[in-house]
Amino acid sequence: MRILIAEDEKSLNRILVKQFTKLGYSVDSCFDGESVFDFLAGAEYDAIVLDVMMPRKDGFEVLREMRAAKNHTPVIFLTAKTEISDRVFGLDLGANDYLIKPFSFEELAARVRMLTRDSKGNSTNIFSVGDLTVDVKSREVKRGERKIDLSAREYSILEALIRNAGTVMTREKIESSVWNYDYEGGTNVIDVYIRYLRKKIDEGYDKKLIHTVRGAGYILKEGE
After folding, report:
1. Which percentage of the chain shows pLDDT scores above 70?
2. Which CATH number belongs to the domain containing residue 107 in this structure?
């Protein structure tokens, strides 16, 4: 899952980046509203954590321009504004949620999970394909009753695949879902991690779940 944090308070920005990264998210961040559009031009995000009071463009203006451009990425506002009228205004602009400062990181993380879950049409934290299950809250992966231990990067790639189960994901799409904006590796790295995942998930099973679509990418689905 890839998220963008737009928060001009640098200490808070750094804390949010650190904490979301610990949870396994790919995180980009910026400190003003105008920079949000630079990031949106180069990547797709599963959610945006957007401060209201920022230089160059405030959060309200950023969201107004996003929605006018038909960008429907889920947005949660962060703000020190406590007036109900401000919250109503932000929600009417198209915000998905609103959190008033000061707040607990645990609550923010839970709300981001809810946004990303709802935006993909899921009402649960557990995704499954065949007998493979992934709990995106606890990050527990099982095939049948067998628990599978994955590295942080392996898990992130598997989560991207299972959230898009049945859909072919190009190497570039997987890369953009897993690594942040500063990543300068190559898409061949995806092939390496797919081999690791196949060894842990498919090896020893008649029904393979991770499939290569020649010339396109990879897809997670039950075998034929």
Report:
1. 92
2. 3.40.50.2300
